[in-house]
Structures are given as C-alpha cells and as structure tokens.
Amino acid sequence: MSFRDADRAVTVQIGAVILLGFLVISLSLYQATVVPDQNKRIEFEHNQRVQADLQGVRNAILGTAATGSSAPTGVELGTAYPSRVVAVNPAPPSGTLSTTDLGAIEVRNATADDPATPGTDYPETADFWNGSTHSYPTKSLAYQPNYANYGNAPKTIFENGVVFNRFRSGNVTQTGQPVVSGRRISVVALSGDLSRGGTGTLTLDPQPVSVSTRTISVSNTTAGENVSVFLPTRLSADTWKDLLNESGEYDPDANATNGAYVYRVEDRSNGVELYFEAGTTYQLKLSKVGVGANAGDTDPAYLTSAEGLTTSPFEGRTYPFVVEARDKYNNPIGVQVNASANRGTVPPGTVLEPGRYRYEYTAPDSDGPDWVNVSYRSAADGAEYDITDPAFNGSKIENVQYAVMVQGATGGGGGGGGGGVCTVGTNNNPTAFQFNNLDGFNSKPSPDRWDISQVNVQDQDGDNDLSELKFEIADEGGVVRATYTVQISGQQYQDKNLRIDPDDSTYDVQSGEIYTLTATVCDGDGNSRTETRQDSS
User: CATH number of the domain that 446 lies in?
Assistant: First the structure.
C-alpha cells in the first residue's frame, strides 16, 4: 500500500468524526433550544385552556347557586408533549386544583325594611335581619400548574364569583363581578374540600347546599351606617373598583339617579369592603355551593311569615297563613314547625315545599283579641318557645306570632253588608278620607277567595272618627259574590294580606272572570268615600 492511500483513509476518518460532531452539536442545540421552545408553546396553550376551564367552573357554580341544578364541568389538569424520535421530553406537564379557606363574607348594617314606607315592612324577617353583621365562610378554588418551561405561568383563582390570574407581578382579572347588579346584591359562598393533581381531566360537579330561591329587601335604618359587604379576597380595592366600573356599578359621587349604588370601596385586612348608598332598598340573594368532599349543610336560622294572617278575622271564620323556616342564607329549609292559637284553633299544617308550611286559623265564636303562635323549637327549649304558653316570645327569631282582633259577624259570608248608616258605593264628602293604599286585589280560583295585599285608609277632616270599612266583590254580571265589613276607629286603619271568602261557600271563584272590588269607608259624621279596583283571575 502506498503512503498516498494511507493519507486518503485518514482523511475519511477525520471527516466522519467531524460529521458526527456536527450531528451531536445539532442534536444538543435542538434539545437545548428547540424542544424547550416547542414545549413552552404547548404549556402556554394548555394554560389558556385551563383558564377557560376555570371560567366554565365559575359559571357552573353560579348557575348551581341560582337554580340548584348541577352542571358538571371538566378541568384539564395537564397535557402531553409530542413524541420525539431522537430528542427527550421532560415529564408531562401537570397541575393541581384545590380549595383554600378564604375567610368569611360579611353583610353589615342590613335591616329587612323599606325606608320609603312607614313602620316595619317585614317584622318577622327583621328579627333576624336587624342590622347586625351576618357572616358566611367561603373558600377559593385555584389551579396551580407544574410546567417545565413556561416559568411565568400564572396561578388561576376563582373567588367571590371572579376568576383572575395571579402573576408574580400582580393580578389580572379574567371575568366580571357578579356580586352587584343595580340594587341587587348576590353573594355565593363556596364550601368543600378538594385537592386533586395529575395530568388528566378532572370533572367537577358543584353541589347545591343552599339555593338562592328567596330574595329579601334590606336597607340601612341608622344614619351613617350604610349597608356594606365585606369580601375576603386577594384582589385590591382598586381592582374591585375597576370591576364595578366595567359593569357600571361604581358611583363614587353617590349620585342617587344614575343606577349605580356602590359609592365606596376600601381595602381591609384580608379583603375589601363595598359600601352602598343610603336611603335605598336593596334586594339580597345569598347561596352556598360546595365542590369536592365535605360540602356541608345548613341549619334553620329563623322563622318568618310568608303569607300573613289577617289582623281582623271574623268570628268562626277560617283564614290561611303561610310560614317559612329559613337558613341564614334566607332560603327555605325543612324542619318540624308547630302552631297553636290562644282562643281559636289551628290544625296541623300542610308542607307546601321543604321549609314552607300552610296553616288555617279558625277564629273563636266571640270577638276580642287572640294570638297565633308558631315555632320550630319546642317547650323543652324554654317557655318562650312553648306555643301554648303565655310567655311565648314572638320576637325570637325561631318564632312567629300573629296578634289578631276578632270581629263580631255583621253580615253574610265575609262578615259584612248588614245594618248601619255606612252604605257601600256612597261618596258623601269623600275629601274627609284618604285611601293611602288599596293594593294587590287578586282573585284566587284555588282555594276560592280574593286577596288584598294592603289596605291603608286615613281620616282627613281632623276629628279621627273612622267607624267602618266595607268591601263588596262583584262578578262581571254585577252579582255581589262576597261582602266584608271591618269595624274601625281612630285616625287611621291599615291591614295587610286581607283575605275575603265568597258569601256562598259553594261558589267557585272563576278563572278569567273580571271581578270588581268596591271599598267604602265611613266615619261617625256620616261621611263616606268609595274606591274600586278590578282584577282578572
């Protein structure tokens, strides 16, 4: 072999080594730069999907709170990298979805009353909603990613109805706020224990604990103590101002005419406090939804009158009333409720739905005062809860007491129409009276009666000598189907939830019939005034 051939062989070997070196370097560069960039893109896209998943969870939780129907939704905890022939992938990206104690939502200075009307509008509910602070423990739900390359990935958090991303540099909201909408305040507390990690898809099934089927009217009754809501949150007051601004609910000038009612937002320890304008009635809805295990339950918090008992029943007549046992979220909750009357009778009630009970009170055969006591507690808890004891305390939040004045029967059917100088339909010096209210005249084909939600009549000639208030209800043909008389006195008479039965107990209130209510008030001087109302059943 010549020396020239030997040199050629060495050259080939050196070229192979150089080529191999280039391949190794190229693979190393690919592994070190291209693979991480591609995987970072995959992780970023996954994170975008998870954020959308958390918004879906948020909507499912709010929907469950409002309707009680659970809508399972999935959260993609992790994803997968593409297969590679020569390069090596790290472990698949994963994440953890978990709940964390957040603190307690608090509703402060809220009283169940409408300041625009005199007196207490909802006395039984106001026993519970009396301006004191009500607390509702809640949790956050957060997704924490575990990525190999997307190092600045946010933690995505749901709390108080808002989804936001938490970066090292600050928070970025992903949804609007559902707490305030005009005069409506909606609070959803989150409960349950959840901590699930992995790379697959987790199906989350929100559980209704207390569904917001009831809305109560609240306002502030003390000057300088505005209705406010404290929200435990990681978001600042400035962020909440932005959220409220975006939905048109922030009104720093406290302008009473622009439809926005949150006039101040302040940072508090571990949260923010939203202040609402004074002198306005707000509609409050509360609910509780659970995720994971140990979602919990609720307990009875107070008893309230849902459909009141007339304050002026007639001897021997029967009148219905409805009470509700509610949890602290103001929603009905099933519990044993008992009722009794001092002189009249109240048979066992009917369950209309869990927590809602209908009773019928039959007045005694003699006029005078009577009391109807209702409670979900028992005599074993003390005399103040004993529905048959004179010491029964109607102001206890677990009790309802109706004070009535039984009227002597003065006519057929509903107790009116006979004798006296007060004649239905007359207008003799009508300016001597003022009907402040004659509202809510409704026909009830079942259970065959007519309702008047509010009556308020006032003496206007200064001698405070009201004497009688008479009602007649006639059908389209002018036939009087019911009469009702109330003996009154003084300067003013008012009643709520008045119920009038047909004079003929066999008469059926007709659906679609247009009935006319005629109300006439008289005084001791012989003056009278008549008002009429119509309603189609």
Answer: 2.60.40.2550
Number of structural domains (the chain) is 3
Are 463 and 375 within one domain?
no
Domain of residue 337, residue span: 300-406
User: How far is it, in rounded angstroms, from Cα 485 to Cα 439?
Assistant: 17
pLDDT of residue 5: 56
Q: Which residues make beta-bridge pairs with 286?
A: 187
User: What size, in residues, is the chain?
Assistant: 537
| Residue 323: CATH number of its domain | 2.60.40.10
Last residue of a domain, one of 406, 432, 458: 406
The 10 Å Cβ neighbour count of residue 133 is: 12
pLDDT value at residue 303: 97
From residue 369, alpha-carbon distances to 158, 203, 365, 388, 406 in Å are: 55, 60, 12, 16, 6
How far is Cα 70 from Cα 72, in angstroms, rounded to an integer?
A: 6
pLDDT reported for residue 33: 62
Beta strand 282-290 pairing with 184-191: parallel
Give a yes or no: residue 375 inside a domain: yes
Contacts for 21 with CB less than 8 Å, ≥ 6 apart: none
Q: Is residue 512 part of a domain?
A: yes
329: tokens are 């979220």
Q: Identify the residue whose tokens are 């007060």.
A: 422
Question: 353-382 pLDDT, tens per residue?
Answer: 999 999 999 999 998 999 999 999 999 999
Q: How far apart are CA 285 and CA 330, in angstroms?
A: 8
pLDDT along the chain (537 residues), means of 10: 56 70 63 68 94 97 95 93 73 94 97 73 86 97 94 96 96 97 97 96 96 93 86 97 96 91 96 95 96 96 90 83 95 97 95 94 92 96 95 95 80 36 81 92 87 91 89 85 86 87 84 91 90 80
Asked if 498 and 449 count as a contact pair (C-beta separation under 8 A), the reply is no
Q: Are residues 384 and 420 in the same domain?
A: no
Residue reference for tokens 């309707």: 67
Of 286, 236, 278, which is closest to residue 134 (Cα–Cα)?
286
Q: Are residues 386 and 419 in the same domain?
A: no
Pairwise CA distance, residues 241 & 231, whole Å: 13
Sheet holding 399-406, edge to edge: 338-341, 368-375, 399-406
Q: What span, in angstroms and rounded, lies between the C-alpha atoms of 53 and 41?
A: 18
Task: Look at residue 23 and tell me if it is in a domain.
Answer: no
Structure token pair of residue 400: 């309802």
Q: What is the pLDDT of residue 8?
A: 57
Alpha-carbon span 295 to 57, nearest angstrom: 16
Neighbours of 447 (CB within 10 A): 11
List Cβ neighbours of 5 (8 Å cut-off, separation of 6 or more). Answer: none
Bridge partner residues of 203 (DSSP): 74
The answer to whether residue 495 sits within a structural domain is yes
